[in-house]
Design brief:
Elements: E1 4-7, E2 17-23, E3 26-30, H1 38-47, E4 55-59, H2 65-68, H3 71-77, E5 82-85, H4 90-94, H5 97-115, E6 127-129, E7 135-138, E8 141-147, E9 156-160, E10 165-169, E11 174-175, E12 187-188, H6 198-210, E13 215-218, E14 222-224, H7 227-251, H8 255-277, H9 283-310
Parallel strand pairs: 3-4, 4-5, 5-6, 10-13
Antiparallel strand pairs: 1-2, 2-3, 7-8, 8-9, 9-10, 11-12, 13-14
């Protein structure tokens, strides 16, 4: 077994994955989802004949809580695991107070408590920031860390020599419903607050392709083998989102009107992306999108207002 996909059941099936890597007598998770997924991760270890003590690494691509929220609970159960993350993420894992406040600002106190709490500080001795090109060994495998901003400034991707795959976090977008029949992979680039950077996102995709990887492991969701074609689809999504920022800037809108403007255009961008991929959307798709569209729009509106303040 090279890579095992664990469905974390976040917001429903096939929405967020954690990946289990086992080599010899060591294991690693890439993405730790939320505290609610930790029992699923522990069960996966047990199913594959591994003990909690054999988990060497708990890796996160970035701090958004559908990727990192379960980390403190996971390492509490796995005493030998070291958390690997972007250097900028380290202080927020050690002291998550600002991270929690930021999430509450987006989802509210009730939403945070229902979806993500509790999140506890992690012992600094158990957290390591991974610089560009730095590597760790997992048995005979080498994991190489890449700085991949664009969705978040503190985002990393991880190339795994064992599978010749890259764990892309959100850099390669969201893959909705892998069983869908479409001409191209239906991928959408997420623009959640506050770090969407189109130029950086495009460069990060190029850097992932430059590894020569044969597959991408998307947190949302699953293995993508059509990696070159997938890159072109994600680049198209980034361009659509960047266009919304330009239009919103020209509109001169602020506050709630700006948010509404962005939401309408994000919805249209999703539909245009589906047409580009020759993917048919149904009520279930739009029901899932209803949770993502306001958050993506909020990230775009934030960019517009931030640019206006600095002008």
């Amino acid at each position: 077994m090279l890579v095992s996909t664990i469905d974390c059941q976040y917001l429903g099936p096939e929405h967020a994955a954690s990946y289990l890597l086992i080599q010899g007598d060591e294991a690693a998770f890439v993405e730790n989802n939320t505290v609610h997924a930790v029992p699923l991760l522990m069960r996966a270890l047990e199913t594959h004949g591994m003990s909690p003590e054999q988990l060497a690494y708990a890796i996160i691509t970035h701090l958004h809580l559908d990727h990192a929220g379960g980390t403190s609970a996971l390492v509490k159960r796995c005493p030998n695991a070291t958390v690997l993350a972007h250097p900028r993420a380290v202080r927020h894992l050690v002291d998550p107070s600002r991270l929690i406040a930021g999430v509450k600002a987006v989802y509210g106190e009730r939403g945070f408590n229902a979806m993500y709490a509790p999140i506890e500080p992690i012992d600094p001795a158990r957290v390591r920031g991974m610089e560009e090109g730095e590597t760790v060994a997992l048995g005979r495998r080498t994991l190489t860390f890449l700085q991949t901003p664009g969705h978040a400034k503190h985002h990393i991707a991880i190339h795994d020599s064992g599978s010749n795959g890259v764990f892309t976090g959100d850099t390669f977008g969201y893959n909705y419903r892998r069983s869908r029949s479409s001409k191209r992979p239906f991928l959408l680039f997420p623009t959640a607050p506050t770090d969407f950077d189109p130029d950086a996102a495009r460069e990060s995709i190029r850097r992932i392709l430059a590894t020569g990887a044969e597959r991408a492991y998307l947190t949302h969701f699953g293995e993508l083998t059509a990696i070159e074609e997938g890159a072109q689809v994600v680049l198209a999504s980034i361009e659509r989102m960047e266009g919304i920022v330009r239009d919103a800037t020209a509109s001169g809108l602020t506050g709630g009107e700006l948010q509404h403007f962005c939401e309408e255009r994000v919805r249209a961008a999703y539909a245009a992306q589906a047409a580009f991929c020759c993917a048919t959307l149904d009520e279930d798709d739009w029901g899932r999108f209803d949770a993502d569209i306001p958050v993506d729009a909020q990230g775009l509106a934030f960019l517009v207002e931030k640019a206006a303040e600095s002008a």
